Amino acid sequence: MRTGSEPVTARSALRLRFWLSAWGLVWAVAGTVAFVLAGRPGWAAACAVLWLLVTVDMVMIVRHIRQGPHYQPGRDVPPYEPVDERSTPPPNPPRPPTQRHSKPSHP
Known about the structure:
It is built from two helices and no strands. The protein is mainly α. 5% of the residues are buried.
């Protein structure tokens, strides 16, 4: 919900997040290679999982960067009014149950 107190020039730090992920990717790859060479398969697998997670994160970051900026309302757009529960109409009253006249099932 928009309150009207948002910064006008707010931007996401996607490029910073990209470079931090790149740094993590370098370390994950280096760790995987080092642990494979050292004969530590458990630690190599842990670094490989981290490598996979960092790669997926980088793909998402690049996707968001390529989408470009999204519409943000400017200063001329007033904030939304908060919902006043007293001004909302009451819910519809429940209908009375319909009465069905059933025929006797015995002769």
